[in-house]
Amino acid sequence: MAGFRTAGSFVAMALSVGLLTACSGDRGSNKNESLENFTAEEIYKRGEYELENNTKPKEAVHYFGEVERLYPYSDWAKRALIMQAYSYHKAREYEDARGAAQRFIDTYPGDEDAAYAKYLLALSYYDQIDDVGRDQGLTFQALKSLREVIEEYPDTEYARSAILKFDLAFDHLAAKEMEIGRYYLKRGHYTAAINRFRVIVEEYQTTTQTPEALMRLVEAYLALGMTNEAQTAGAILGHNFQSSPFYQDAYKQLQGQGLAPEAKGDSWLTKVYRQVIQGKWL
């Protein structure tokens, strides 16, 4: 958990043999054991030990939870709560991770680790993003939560990481549109395909999907005999991505019909082209 203050400073501390023996008669945790005779620090360290040495990170949650139960409102309880969120996340129990992280934010909104809790909450959505063919609800949730980290904690390392992940999640949404557009295009549903590619060009223009979307627009418009639109899409592609193999493909398609990439007509693509030339688009 790079950059996390409370975890990093205590994992390095050695646990006493007596504590290890008292908390566990053999390897693994015993959730029926009594921890009431141990200090908050000892129980917390046991949780860290389990987190670092047990193949099941969720086992650590028991100890961090006991710190909260036995020593509520203490500094150790505060640290244990955020460590519960981290342990759940490491165990891929994302909903529980979000719950613990949100509880930390609600209970300690002004704490210096609130930024990490917020980031961990966003990460729990981000790490659940599936293949582009799956439902994108979690992607939208990830984007929303990552944006909150960026806006609320702009000067933290978590904001810097959130920016990178935001861009990847945004690209993921564009890839979904691209996948659907290809599906329609392959089946000859050109208007439906164009609508998908248009979304990418207008709403996801900063993503890596844009060059292909423009090339597919050339292909779809040519199939419909709409040469002005096809040429304009090719012109935008050439202006911004001339070194892209997608431009080479689009150029060959246009050339094959005796056409060249240039802005023609007065379509939505012509407006985009004007914005590009004026430096107001990408």
Automatic annotation (TrEMBL):
Coiled coil, from the record: none
Protein name: Outer membrane protein assembly factor BamD
Outer membrane lipoprotein BamD-like domain location: 39-233
Pfam families: YfiO
Quaternary structure and partners: Part of the Bam complex.
Chain's role: Part of the outer membrane protein assembly complex, which is involved in assembly and insertion of beta-barrel proteins into the outer membrane.
This protein's encoding gene: bamD
Primary location recorded for the protein, binned into one broad class: membrane
A GO cellular component annotation in the UniProt record: cell outer membrane
Biological source species: Paracoccus aminophilus JCM 7686
